[in-house]
Amino acid sequence: MIAQIKDQIINALGEGAVIRTDEQPLQPILVVHAGYLLEIALFLRDTEGLYFDFLSNISVVDYFPEGRFDVVYHLASIPYQTQLTLKVELPNDRSLEHLPEIPSVSSVWRTADWHEREAFDLMGVYFVGHPDLRRILLPDDWQGHPLRKDYEDPETYHGIAIK
Amino acid sequence: MTRYTEGLENYKKKIAAISSQEMVINMGPQHPSTHGVLRLELITDGEIVKEIIPHLGYLHRCFDKHAESMNYGKTIPFTDRLDYLASMNNSHAFVMGVERMLGIDKALPKRIEYIRVLVCELNRIASHLIAIGTYGIDIGAFTPFMWCFRDREHIMNMLEWASGSRMLYNYIWIGGLFYDLPVGFEERCQDFVSYFKPKLIELDNLLSTNQIFISRTANIGALPADVAIQYGCSGPMLRASGIKWDLRRVDGYSVYPELEFDIPVGKGEMGKLGDCWDRYKVRVDEVRESIRIIEQCLERLKGDFKRTPDFDPRAMVPRKVNLKPQEYYIRAENPKGELGFHFVTQEKTDIPRRVKARGPSFNNLSVLPELGKGQLIADLIAILGSIDIVLGEVDR
Protein backbone atom coordinates (compact mmCIF):
# COMPACT_ATOMS: atom_id res chain seq x y z
CA MET A 1 0.00 0.00 0.00
CA ILE A 2 2.77 2.39 0.93
CA ALA A 3 4.47 2.08 -2.48
CA GLN A 4 1.17 3.03 -4.10
CA ILE A 5 0.83 6.11 -1.90
CA LYS A 6 4.42 7.04 -2.70
CA ASP A 7 3.71 6.86 -6.44
CA GLN A 8 0.55 8.91 -6.02
CA ILE A 9 2.41 11.64 -4.15
CA ILE A 10 5.23 11.70 -6.69
CA ASN A 11 2.74 11.92 -9.56
CA ALA A 12 0.91 14.80 -7.94
CA LEU A 13 3.74 16.81 -6.39
CA GLY A 14 6.91 15.84 -8.20
CA GLU A 15 9.95 13.62 -7.72
CA GLY A 16 11.49 15.55 -4.84
CA ALA A 17 8.57 15.22 -2.41
CA VAL A 18 9.24 11.69 -1.20
CA ILE A 19 12.76 10.73 -0.20
CA ARG A 20 12.30 6.99 0.38
CA THR A 21 10.15 4.34 1.99
CA ASP A 22 11.61 2.85 5.10
CA GLU A 23 10.64 -0.82 5.35
CA GLN A 24 10.22 -1.50 9.05
CA PRO A 25 9.26 -5.01 10.22
CA LEU A 26 5.81 -3.91 11.40
CA GLN A 27 4.94 -0.50 9.99
CA PRO A 28 6.54 0.89 6.84
CA ILE A 29 7.42 4.57 6.99
CA LEU A 30 7.22 7.16 4.24
CA VAL A 31 10.15 9.55 4.58
CA VAL A 32 9.27 12.88 2.98
CA HIS A 33 10.95 16.19 2.29
CA ALA A 34 10.32 18.96 4.85
CA GLY A 35 9.73 21.55 2.13
CA TYR A 36 6.81 19.55 0.68
CA LEU A 37 5.27 18.58 4.02
CA LEU A 38 2.30 20.91 3.89
CA GLU A 39 1.37 19.95 0.31
CA ILE A 40 1.75 16.26 1.13
CA ALA A 41 -0.41 16.65 4.24
CA LEU A 42 -3.18 18.34 2.26
CA PHE A 43 -2.87 15.77 -0.51
CA LEU A 44 -3.14 12.85 1.92
CA ARG A 45 -6.11 14.39 3.68
CA ASP A 46 -8.15 15.37 0.66
CA THR A 47 -7.43 12.79 -2.05
CA GLU A 48 -10.18 10.31 -2.68
CA GLY A 49 -9.00 6.82 -1.88
CA LEU A 50 -6.64 8.06 0.84
CA TYR A 51 -8.57 10.46 3.14
CA PHE A 52 -6.10 10.43 6.01
CA ASP A 53 -8.32 12.71 8.06
CA PHE A 54 -7.23 11.67 11.54
CA LEU A 55 -3.82 12.63 12.89
CA SER A 56 -3.18 10.31 15.81
CA ASN A 57 0.14 11.49 17.00
CA ILE A 58 3.22 13.58 16.34
CA SER A 59 6.38 12.46 18.01
CA VAL A 60 9.91 13.74 17.67
CA VAL A 61 12.88 11.40 18.01
CA ASP A 62 16.30 12.71 18.96
CA TYR A 63 19.20 10.79 17.40
CA PHE A 64 21.78 12.21 19.72
CA PRO A 65 25.30 11.72 18.52
CA GLU A 66 24.23 12.11 14.89
CA GLY A 67 22.65 15.52 15.43
CA ARG A 68 19.39 14.64 13.72
CA PHE A 69 15.74 15.02 14.72
CA ASP A 70 13.01 12.89 13.21
CA VAL A 71 9.46 14.22 13.26
CA VAL A 72 7.05 11.30 12.92
CA TYR A 73 3.39 11.72 11.99
CA HIS A 74 0.98 8.86 12.64
CA LEU A 75 -2.07 9.20 10.42
CA ALA A 76 -5.25 7.19 10.23
CA SER A 77 -8.07 7.19 7.75
CA ILE A 78 -11.45 6.81 9.37
CA PRO A 79 -13.45 6.02 6.19
CA TYR A 80 -10.96 3.42 4.91
CA GLN A 81 -9.62 2.21 8.28
CA THR A 82 -5.99 2.44 7.17
CA GLN A 83 -2.88 3.79 8.83
CA LEU A 84 0.17 5.63 7.51
CA THR A 85 3.38 6.83 9.10
CA LEU A 86 5.11 9.91 7.72
CA LYS A 87 8.56 10.97 8.72
CA VAL A 88 10.66 14.07 8.16
CA GLU A 89 14.35 14.01 8.98
CA LEU A 90 15.85 17.27 10.20
CA PRO A 91 19.63 17.56 10.50
CA ASN A 92 20.57 20.09 13.16
CA ASP A 93 23.60 21.33 15.09
CA ARG A 94 21.70 21.11 18.42
CA SER A 95 22.34 24.68 19.54
CA LEU A 96 19.45 26.43 21.29
CA GLU A 97 19.83 29.44 18.99
CA HIS A 98 19.13 27.36 15.87
CA LEU A 99 16.24 25.03 16.53
CA PRO A 100 15.36 22.58 13.76
CA GLU A 101 12.55 24.00 11.63
CA ILE A 102 9.62 22.35 9.95
CA PRO A 103 6.34 23.67 8.54
CA SER A 104 3.40 23.37 10.91
CA VAL A 105 0.53 21.11 9.84
CA SER A 106 -1.90 22.58 12.35
CA SER A 107 -3.83 24.18 9.51
CA VAL A 108 -4.44 20.70 8.05
CA TRP A 109 -5.19 18.77 11.23
CA ARG A 110 -6.06 20.77 14.34
CA THR A 111 -4.72 17.91 16.49
CA ALA A 112 -1.29 19.07 15.46
CA ASP A 113 -1.74 22.31 17.39
CA TRP A 114 -1.13 20.87 20.84
CA HIS A 115 1.16 18.09 19.63
CA GLU A 116 3.45 20.62 17.99
CA ARG A 117 3.43 22.76 21.09
CA GLU A 118 4.48 19.71 23.08
CA ALA A 119 7.24 18.89 20.60
CA PHE A 120 8.46 22.50 20.75
CA ASP A 121 8.35 22.43 24.54
CA LEU A 122 10.11 19.16 25.19
CA MET A 123 12.25 18.62 22.09
CA GLY A 124 12.84 22.12 20.80
CA VAL A 125 11.55 21.80 17.26
CA TYR A 126 10.29 25.07 15.78
CA PHE A 127 7.10 24.74 13.74
CA VAL A 128 6.94 27.52 11.18
CA GLY A 129 3.46 28.97 10.81
CA HIS A 130 2.04 27.61 14.05
CA PRO A 131 -0.64 30.02 15.34
CA ASP A 132 0.31 29.90 19.02
CA LEU A 133 3.68 28.27 19.63
CA ARG A 134 4.22 28.39 23.39
CA ARG A 135 5.36 25.83 25.90
CA ILE A 136 2.49 23.59 26.94
CA LEU A 137 3.62 21.17 29.65
CA LEU A 138 6.49 23.07 31.25
CA PRO A 139 6.35 26.56 32.78
CA ASP A 140 6.70 29.44 30.33
CA ASP A 141 10.07 30.50 31.74
CA TRP A 142 11.72 27.07 31.57
CA GLN A 143 15.14 26.98 29.92
CA GLY A 144 16.08 24.25 27.47
CA HIS A 145 14.22 21.25 26.11
CA PRO A 146 14.29 18.31 28.55
CA LEU A 147 13.61 15.41 26.19
CA ARG A 148 16.79 16.07 24.24
CA LYS A 149 19.40 13.46 24.98
CA ASP A 150 22.04 16.06 25.83
CA TYR A 151 19.82 18.04 28.21
CA GLU A 152 21.30 18.68 31.63
CA ASP A 153 19.05 19.36 34.60
CA PRO A 154 19.39 22.85 36.03
CA GLU A 155 20.61 23.18 39.62
CA THR A 156 17.82 25.47 40.72
CA TYR A 157 14.47 26.76 39.51
CA HIS A 158 13.53 30.21 40.88
CA GLY A 159 15.97 29.67 43.74
CA ILE A 160 14.54 26.25 44.63
CA ALA A 161 17.12 23.47 44.56
CA ILE A 162 15.81 20.73 42.28
CA LYS A 163 18.65 18.22 42.40
CA MET B 1 12.38 38.92 21.61
CA THR B 2 13.38 36.10 19.33
CA ARG B 3 11.20 34.11 17.00
CA TYR B 4 11.07 31.32 19.56
CA THR B 5 9.39 33.45 22.24
CA GLU B 6 6.99 35.14 19.85
CA GLY B 7 4.06 32.92 20.84
CA LEU B 8 4.52 33.72 24.52
CA GLU B 9 4.76 37.45 23.88
CA ASN B 10 1.60 37.38 21.77
CA TYR B 11 -0.26 35.56 24.53
CA LYS B 12 0.88 38.09 27.16
CA LYS B 13 -0.17 40.96 24.89
CA LYS B 14 -3.60 39.41 24.38
CA ILE B 15 -4.22 39.10 28.13
CA ALA B 16 -2.96 42.64 28.75
CA ALA B 17 -5.16 44.09 26.01
CA ILE B 18 -8.58 42.85 27.07
CA SER B 19 -11.22 45.58 27.19
CA SER B 20 -12.64 46.93 30.43
CA GLN B 21 -15.91 45.15 29.75
CA GLU B 22 -14.23 41.75 29.65
CA MET B 23 -12.86 39.90 32.61
CA VAL B 24 -10.26 37.15 32.97
CA ILE B 25 -11.40 34.35 35.27
CA ASN B 26 -9.22 31.49 36.39
CA MET B 27 -10.98 28.17 36.64
CA GLY B 28 -8.83 25.74 38.54
CA PRO B 29 -6.22 24.37 39.09
CA GLN B 30 -7.59 23.61 42.57
CA HIS B 31 -11.24 23.24 41.74
CA PRO B 32 -13.08 19.91 41.72
CA SER B 33 -15.03 20.69 38.56
CA THR B 34 -11.85 20.66 36.48
CA HIS B 35 -11.34 16.96 37.39
CA GLY B 36 -7.78 17.41 38.51
CA VAL B 37 -5.20 20.11 38.23
CA LEU B 38 -6.29 21.79 35.02
CA ARG B 39 -6.28 25.55 34.83
CA LEU B 40 -8.57 27.26 32.36
CA GLU B 41 -8.10 30.93 31.78
CA LEU B 42 -11.47 32.27 30.69
CA ILE B 43 -11.94 35.61 28.99
CA THR B 44 -15.54 36.39 29.83
CA ASP B 45 -18.08 39.02 28.96
CA GLY B 46 -20.59 38.83 31.78
CA GLU B 47 -21.73 35.22 31.91
CA ILE B 48 -20.56 34.42 28.38
CA VAL B 49 -17.20 32.76 27.80
CA LYS B 50 -15.49 34.51 24.91
CA GLU B 51 -12.26 32.56 24.90
CA ILE B 52 -10.71 29.65 26.78
CA ILE B 53 -6.97 29.32 27.22
CA PRO B 54 -6.12 25.99 28.88
CA HIS B 55 -2.91 25.73 30.90
CA LEU B 56 -1.63 22.22 31.35
CA GLY B 57 1.37 20.64 32.95
CA TYR B 58 0.62 20.78 36.67
CA LEU B 59 0.82 16.99 36.78
CA HIS B 60 3.67 16.53 34.31
CA ARG B 61 5.75 13.60 35.55
CA CYS B 62 8.06 13.15 32.54
CA PHE B 63 6.69 9.81 31.36
CA ASP B 64 8.63 9.94 28.09
CA LYS B 65 11.93 10.69 29.81
CA HIS B 66 11.39 7.96 32.40
CA ALA B 67 10.53 5.42 29.73
CA GLU B 68 13.70 6.05 27.78
CA SER B 69 15.91 5.67 30.84
CA MET B 70 14.89 2.14 31.80
CA ASN B 71 13.96 -1.11 30.12
CA TYR B 72 10.53 -2.00 28.80
CA GLY B 73 9.36 -4.10 31.73
CA LYS B 74 10.15 -1.42 34.26
CA THR B 75 8.04 1.12 32.37
CA ILE B 76 4.78 -0.83 32.91
CA PRO B 77 4.16 0.65 36.39
CA PHE B 78 4.57 4.11 34.88
CA THR B 79 1.99 3.38 32.20
CA ASP B 80 -0.44 2.59 35.04
CA ARG B 81 -0.08 6.15 36.19
CA LEU B 82 -1.02 7.72 32.86
CA ASP B 83 -4.77 7.24 33.04
CA TYR B 84 -4.89 6.17 36.67
CA LEU B 85 -8.56 5.30 36.44
CA ALA B 86 -7.92 2.67 33.79
CA SER B 87 -4.50 1.27 34.59
CA MET B 88 -5.16 -2.15 33.11
CA ASN B 89 -6.00 -0.71 29.72
CA ASN B 90 -2.83 1.39 29.69
CA SER B 91 -0.50 -1.47 30.48
CA HIS B 92 -2.37 -3.70 28.03
CA ALA B 93 -1.66 -1.27 25.19
CA PHE B 94 1.99 -0.85 26.14
CA VAL B 95 2.59 -4.56 26.59
CA MET B 96 0.90 -5.38 23.28
CA GLY B 97 3.25 -3.02 21.48
CA VAL B 98 6.35 -4.64 22.93
CA GLU B 99 4.99 -8.13 22.27
CA ARG B 100 4.30 -7.33 18.64
CA MET B 101 7.82 -6.01 18.19
CA LEU B 102 9.13 -9.22 19.80
CA GLY B 103 6.84 -11.27 17.56
CA ILE B 104 5.31 -13.27 20.42
CA ASP B 105 1.81 -11.76 20.37
CA LYS B 106 0.32 -14.59 18.28
CA ALA B 107 1.88 -17.32 20.43
CA LEU B 108 0.38 -16.22 23.73
CA PRO B 109 -1.94 -18.74 25.44
CA LYS B 110 -5.60 -17.91 24.97
CA ARG B 111 -6.20 -17.96 28.72
CA ILE B 112 -3.80 -15.07 29.17
CA GLU B 113 -5.55 -13.07 26.45
CA TYR B 114 -8.99 -13.71 27.94
CA ILE B 115 -7.83 -12.74 31.42
CA ARG B 116 -6.38 -9.55 29.99
CA VAL B 117 -9.59 -8.65 28.22
CA LEU B 118 -11.60 -9.51 31.33
CA VAL B 119 -9.61 -7.23 33.64
CA CYS B 120 -9.48 -4.49 31.00
CA GLU B 121 -13.24 -4.50 30.61
CA LEU B 122 -13.72 -4.49 34.39
CA ASN B 123 -11.44 -1.48 34.51
CA ARG B 124 -13.34 0.16 31.66
CA ILE B 125 -16.55 -0.15 33.67
CA ALA B 126 -14.82 1.35 36.71
CA SER B 127 -13.55 4.25 34.63
CA HIS B 128 -16.93 4.91 33.03
CA LEU B 129 -18.63 4.74 36.44
CA ILE B 130 -16.33 7.52 37.63
CA ALA B 131 -17.09 9.49 34.48
CA ILE B 132 -20.85 9.13 34.95
CA GLY B 133 -20.79 9.71 38.69
CA THR B 134 -18.60 12.78 38.66
CA TYR B 135 -20.53 14.13 35.71
CA GLY B 136 -23.66 13.95 37.81
CA ILE B 137 -21.96 15.80 40.63
CA ASP B 138 -20.63 18.43 38.24
CA ILE B 139 -24.13 19.48 37.36
CA GLY B 140 -25.65 19.05 40.78
CA ALA B 141 -26.87 15.46 41.05
CA PHE B 142 -25.34 13.87 44.12
CA THR B 143 -26.95 10.42 44.25
CA PRO B 144 -25.45 8.93 41.05
CA PHE B 145 -22.01 9.73 42.40
CA MET B 146 -22.60 7.64 45.51
CA TRP B 147 -24.16 4.81 43.52
CA CYS B 148 -21.31 4.73 41.01
CA PHE B 149 -18.65 4.70 43.69
CA ARG B 150 -20.49 1.97 45.60
CA ASP B 151 -20.49 -0.27 42.50
CA ARG B 152 -16.97 0.68 41.47
CA GLU B 153 -15.76 -0.44 44.88
CA HIS B 154 -16.70 -4.04 44.01
CA ILE B 155 -14.48 -3.85 40.89
CA MET B 156 -11.64 -2.30 42.85
CA ASN B 157 -11.85 -5.10 45.42
CA MET B 158 -11.84 -7.77 42.73
CA LEU B 159 -8.86 -6.29 40.92
CA GLU B 160 -7.07 -5.87 44.25
CA TRP B 161 -7.63 -9.54 44.86
CA ALA B 162 -6.06 -10.41 41.52
CA SER B 163 -3.14 -7.99 41.51
CA GLY B 164 -2.58 -6.84 45.08
CA SER B 165 -3.27 -3.19 44.40
CA ARG B 166 -6.43 -1.12 44.25
CA MET B 167 -5.71 1.29 41.43
CA LEU B 168 -2.22 0.87 39.99
CA TYR B 169 -2.03 -2.80 39.23
CA ASN B 170 1.16 -3.68 37.30
CA TYR B 171 -0.73 -6.89 36.54
CA ILE B 172 -0.20 -7.32 32.79
CA TRP B 173 3.38 -8.15 31.97
CA ILE B 174 5.25 -8.46 28.70
CA GLY B 175 4.52 -12.00 27.55
CA GLY B 176 2.11 -12.86 30.33
CA LEU B 177 0.61 -11.85 33.62
CA PHE B 178 1.82 -11.21 37.16
CA TYR B 179 -0.25 -14.14 38.47
CA ASP B 180 -3.09 -16.29 37.31
CA LEU B 181 -6.49 -15.19 38.57
CA PRO B 182 -7.04 -16.21 42.19
CA VAL B 183 -9.13 -19.35 42.74
CA GLY B 184 -12.80 -18.37 42.82
CA PHE B 185 -12.34 -15.13 40.86
CA GLU B 186 -14.57 -16.26 38.02
CA GLU B 187 -17.43 -17.06 40.40
CA ARG B 188 -17.06 -13.78 42.27
CA CYS B 189 -16.99 -11.90 38.99
CA GLN B 190 -20.13 -13.74 37.89
CA ASP B 191 -21.80 -12.68 41.15
CA PHE B 192 -20.77 -9.10 40.49
CA VAL B 193 -22.23 -9.19 36.98
CA SER B 194 -25.59 -10.44 38.23
CA TYR B 195 -25.53 -7.84 41.00
CA PHE B 196 -24.53 -5.00 38.70
CA LYS B 197 -26.95 -5.52 35.80
CA PRO B 198 -30.07 -4.30 37.66
CA LYS B 199 -28.01 -1.55 39.30
CA LEU B 200 -27.03 -0.23 35.89
CA ILE B 201 -30.67 -0.10 34.79
CA GLU B 202 -31.44 1.75 38.00
CA LEU B 203 -28.64 4.22 37.36
CA ASP B 204 -29.76 4.71 33.77
CA ASN B 205 -33.33 5.39 34.90
CA LEU B 206 -32.16 7.81 37.55
CA LEU B 207 -30.09 10.02 35.29
CA SER B 208 -30.77 9.54 31.57
CA THR B 209 -34.37 10.67 31.54
CA ASN B 210 -34.16 13.06 34.47
CA GLN B 211 -35.64 16.36 33.34
CA ILE B 212 -33.10 18.51 35.17
CA PHE B 213 -30.24 16.45 33.78
CA ILE B 214 -31.60 16.70 30.24
CA SER B 215 -32.03 20.47 30.54
CA ARG B 216 -28.43 20.82 31.64
CA THR B 217 -26.92 18.54 28.97
CA ALA B 218 -29.09 18.28 25.86
CA ASN B 219 -28.16 20.71 23.07
CA ILE B 220 -25.15 21.86 25.10
CA GLY B 221 -21.70 21.63 23.55
CA ALA B 222 -22.71 19.80 20.39
CA LEU B 223 -19.61 18.53 18.62
CA PRO B 224 -20.03 17.90 14.88
CA ALA B 225 -18.27 14.80 13.58
CA ASP B 226 -15.91 16.69 11.26
CA VAL B 227 -14.70 18.93 14.08
CA ALA B 228 -14.19 15.90 16.30
CA ILE B 229 -12.00 14.26 13.67
CA GLN B 230 -10.10 17.48 13.01
CA TYR B 231 -9.17 17.75 16.67
CA GLY B 232 -8.21 14.08 16.97
CA CYS B 233 -11.01 13.25 19.40
CA SER B 234 -11.46 9.55 19.94
CA GLY B 235 -13.34 7.11 22.10
CA PRO B 236 -16.78 8.06 23.45
CA MET B 237 -16.17 11.67 22.30
CA LEU B 238 -15.99 10.63 18.66
CA ARG B 239 -18.66 7.95 18.91
CA ALA B 240 -21.12 10.39 20.49
CA SER B 241 -20.76 12.47 17.32
CA GLY B 242 -22.13 9.54 15.37
CA ILE B 243 -18.98 7.88 14.05
CA LYS B 244 -18.67 4.16 14.60
CA TRP B 245 -14.96 4.06 15.39
CA ASP B 246 -13.80 1.62 18.00
CA LEU B 247 -10.23 0.32 17.80
CA ARG B 248 -11.30 -2.93 19.43
CA ARG B 249 -13.17 -3.59 16.18
CA VAL B 250 -11.02 -1.60 13.73
CA ASP B 251 -7.68 -3.13 14.75
CA GLY B 252 -9.21 -6.28 16.23
CA TYR B 253 -6.42 -6.72 18.72
CA SER B 254 -6.17 -9.39 21.43
CA VAL B 255 -9.26 -11.67 21.41
CA TYR B 256 -11.79 -8.94 20.65
CA PRO B 257 -12.58 -10.38 17.18
CA GLU B 258 -13.85 -13.54 18.93
CA LEU B 259 -16.18 -11.61 21.20
CA GLU B 260 -19.61 -10.28 20.46
CA PHE B 261 -20.37 -6.68 21.29
CA ASP B 262 -21.91 -3.62 19.70
CA ILE B 263 -20.41 -0.18 19.36
CA PRO B 264 -22.81 2.38 20.81
CA VAL B 265 -22.94 5.69 18.94
CA GLY B 266 -24.66 8.96 19.66
CA LYS B 267 -28.03 9.43 17.99
CA GLY B 268 -29.01 12.88 19.15
CA GLU B 269 -32.00 11.48 21.04
CA MET B 270 -32.51 14.44 23.36
CA GLY B 271 -31.17 17.24 21.21
CA LYS B 272 -28.42 17.83 18.71
CA LEU B 273 -26.09 15.02 17.69
CA GLY B 274 -22.90 14.96 19.75
CA ASP B 275 -24.13 17.05 22.65
CA CYS B 276 -23.23 16.43 26.29
CA TRP B 277 -26.17 14.10 26.77
CA ASP B 278 -25.01 11.90 23.87
CA ARG B 279 -21.53 11.67 25.32
CA TYR B 280 -22.96 10.65 28.66
CA LYS B 281 -25.31 8.11 27.07
CA VAL B 282 -22.56 6.50 24.98
CA ARG B 283 -20.65 5.80 28.20
CA VAL B 284 -23.68 4.19 29.85
CA ASP B 285 -24.21 2.01 26.79
CA GLU B 286 -20.55 1.08 26.71
CA VAL B 287 -20.76 -0.17 30.29
CA ARG B 288 -23.56 -2.46 29.13
CA GLU B 289 -21.43 -3.75 26.25
CA SER B 290 -18.49 -4.29 28.59
CA ILE B 291 -20.69 -6.48 30.77
CA ARG B 292 -21.54 -8.54 27.71
CA ILE B 293 -17.82 -8.96 26.98
CA ILE B 294 -17.13 -9.93 30.60
CA GLU B 295 -19.84 -12.56 30.52
CA GLN B 296 -18.38 -14.12 27.38
CA CYS B 297 -14.87 -14.04 28.84
CA LEU B 298 -16.05 -15.71 32.05
CA GLU B 299 -17.82 -18.39 30.08
CA ARG B 300 -14.66 -19.20 28.16
CA LEU B 301 -12.39 -18.93 31.21
CA LYS B 302 -14.58 -21.49 32.93
CA GLY B 303 -14.95 -23.63 29.80
CA ASP B 304 -12.38 -23.94 27.02
CA PHE B 305 -9.55 -22.13 28.74
CA LYS B 306 -10.10 -23.13 32.31
CA ARG B 307 -7.51 -23.16 35.03
CA THR B 308 -5.03 -26.05 34.86
CA PRO B 309 -2.40 -26.86 37.50
CA ASP B 310 0.49 -26.55 35.05
CA PHE B 311 -0.60 -23.19 33.63
CA ASP B 312 2.16 -20.65 34.20
CA PRO B 313 1.23 -17.07 33.28
CA ARG B 314 4.92 -16.09 33.36
CA ALA B 315 6.15 -18.87 31.08
CA MET B 316 6.64 -16.55 28.12
CA VAL B 317 7.87 -13.49 30.00
CA PRO B 318 11.22 -12.70 28.37
CA ARG B 319 14.28 -12.34 30.60
CA LYS B 320 15.54 -9.50 28.47
CA VAL B 321 13.63 -7.71 25.74
CA ASN B 322 16.03 -7.90 22.82
CA LEU B 323 14.67 -5.93 19.90
CA LYS B 324 16.04 -5.12 16.51
CA PRO B 325 16.24 -1.40 15.77
CA GLN B 326 12.75 -0.50 14.60
CA GLU B 327 9.84 1.84 15.06
CA TYR B 328 6.29 0.94 15.92
CA TYR B 329 3.13 2.81 16.82
CA ILE B 330 0.61 0.77 18.78
CA ARG B 331 -2.88 2.06 19.45
CA ALA B 332 -5.59 0.61 21.62
CA GLU B 333 -9.04 1.59 22.77
CA ASN B 334 -8.93 3.00 26.27
CA PRO B 335 -12.06 4.10 28.14
CA LYS B 336 -11.18 7.67 27.13
CA GLY B 337 -10.21 6.95 23.53
CA GLU B 338 -7.21 6.02 21.45
CA LEU B 339 -4.15 5.41 23.58
CA GLY B 340 -1.02 5.15 21.48
CA PHE B 341 2.60 4.39 22.17
CA HIS B 342 5.31 5.19 19.68
CA PHE B 343 8.37 3.03 20.26
CA VAL B 344 11.79 3.63 18.77
CA THR B 345 14.19 0.88 19.79
CA GLN B 346 17.97 0.89 19.90
CA GLU B 347 20.43 -1.79 18.95
CA LYS B 348 22.13 -3.98 21.57
CA THR B 349 20.23 -2.61 24.53
CA ASP B 350 16.83 -3.17 26.09
CA ILE B 351 16.38 0.53 26.78
CA PRO B 352 14.26 2.28 24.14
CA ARG B 353 15.46 5.38 22.37
CA ARG B 354 12.05 6.96 22.52
CA VAL B 355 8.64 6.11 23.91
CA LYS B 356 5.96 8.65 23.22
CA ALA B 357 2.57 8.23 24.83
CA ARG B 358 -0.40 9.66 22.98
CA GLY B 359 -3.01 10.26 25.63
CA PRO B 360 -6.63 10.34 24.46
CA SER B 361 -7.57 12.96 27.07
CA PHE B 362 -4.86 15.28 25.76
CA ASN B 363 -6.49 15.33 22.34
CA ASN B 364 -10.06 15.30 23.62
CA LEU B 365 -9.31 18.31 25.81
CA SER B 366 -7.85 20.27 22.91
CA VAL B 367 -11.34 20.69 21.45
CA LEU B 368 -12.56 22.52 24.58
CA PRO B 369 -11.57 26.05 23.45
CA GLU B 370 -13.67 25.43 20.33
CA LEU B 371 -16.62 23.84 22.14
CA GLY B 372 -16.82 26.30 24.99
CA LYS B 373 -16.66 29.47 22.93
CA GLY B 374 -19.80 31.57 23.39
CA GLN B 375 -21.25 29.32 26.09
CA LEU B 376 -22.28 30.23 29.61
CA ILE B 377 -19.76 29.54 32.36
CA ALA B 378 -22.16 27.05 33.97
CA ASP B 379 -22.45 25.18 30.65
CA LEU B 380 -18.69 25.07 30.37
CA ILE B 381 -18.64 22.91 33.50
CA ALA B 382 -21.11 20.54 31.84
CA ILE B 383 -19.00 20.41 28.65
CA LEU B 384 -15.75 19.80 30.50
CA GLY B 385 -17.35 17.06 32.56
CA SER B 386 -18.71 15.35 29.46
CA ILE B 387 -15.24 15.22 27.88
CA ASP B 388 -14.12 13.07 30.83
CA ILE B 389 -10.47 13.97 31.13
CA VAL B 390 -7.90 12.45 33.43
CA LEU B 391 -5.10 14.87 34.09
CA GLY B 392 -2.57 12.11 34.63
CA GLU B 393 -2.90 11.41 30.95
CA VAL B 394 -3.18 14.98 29.72
CA ASP B 395 0.08 15.98 31.39
CA ARG B 396 1.80 12.59 31.40
UniProtKB/TrEMBL annotation, chain A:
Residues 31-152 form the NADH:ubiquinone oxidoreductase 30kDa subunit domain. SUPFAM superfamilies: Nqo5-like. Its EC number is 7.1.1.-. It is found in: Cell membrane. It catalyses: a quinone + NADH + 5 H(+)(in) = a quinol + NAD(+) + 4 H(+)(out). Gene3D superfamilies: NADH:ubiquinone oxidoreductase, 30kDa subunit. It is a peripheral membrane protein. Keywords: Cell membrane, Membrane, NAD, Quinone, Translocase, Transport. GO terms for cellular component: plasma membrane. Its main location: membrane. The keyword Protein transport does not apply. GO terms for molecular function: NADH dehydrogenase (quinone) (non-electrogenic) activity; NADH dehydrogenase (ubiquinone) activity; quinone binding. NDH-1 shuttles electrons from NADH, via FMN and iron-sulfur (Fe-S) centers, to quinones in the respiratory chain. The immediate electron acceptor for the enzyme in this species is believed to be a menaquinone. Couples the redox reaction to proton translocation (for every two electrons transferred, four hydrogen ions are translocated across the cytoplasmic membrane), and thus conserves the redox energy in a proton gradient. Belongs to the complex I 30 kDa subunit family. NDH-1 is composed of 14 different subunits. Subunits NuoB, C, D, E, F, and G constitute the peripheral sector of the complex. This is NADH-quinone oxidoreductase subunit C. It comes from Sphingobacterium allocomposti.
Automatic annotation (TrEMBL), chain B:
One of its GO terms (cellular component) is plasma membrane. Keywords: Cell membrane, Membrane, NAD, Quinone, Translocase, Transport. Its EC number is 7.1.1.-. It is an enzyme of class 7 (translocase). One of its GO terms (molecular function) is NAD binding. It is a peripheral membrane protein. Its main location: membrane. It catalyses: a quinone + NADH + 5 H(+)(in) = a quinol + NAD(+) + 4 H(+)(out). It is found in: Cell membrane. NDH-1 shuttles electrons from NADH, via FMN and iron-sulfur (Fe-S) centers, to quinones in the respiratory chain. The immediate electron acceptor for the enzyme in this species is believed to be a menaquinone. Couples the redox reaction to proton translocation (for every two electrons transferred, four hydrogen ions are translocated across the cytoplasmic membrane), and thus conserves the redox energy in a proton gradient. Belongs to the complex I 49 kDa subunit family. NDH-1 is composed of 14 different subunits. Subunits NuoB, C, D, E, F, and G constitute the peripheral sector of the complex. This is NADH-quinone oxidoreductase subunit D. It comes from Sphingobacterium allocomposti.
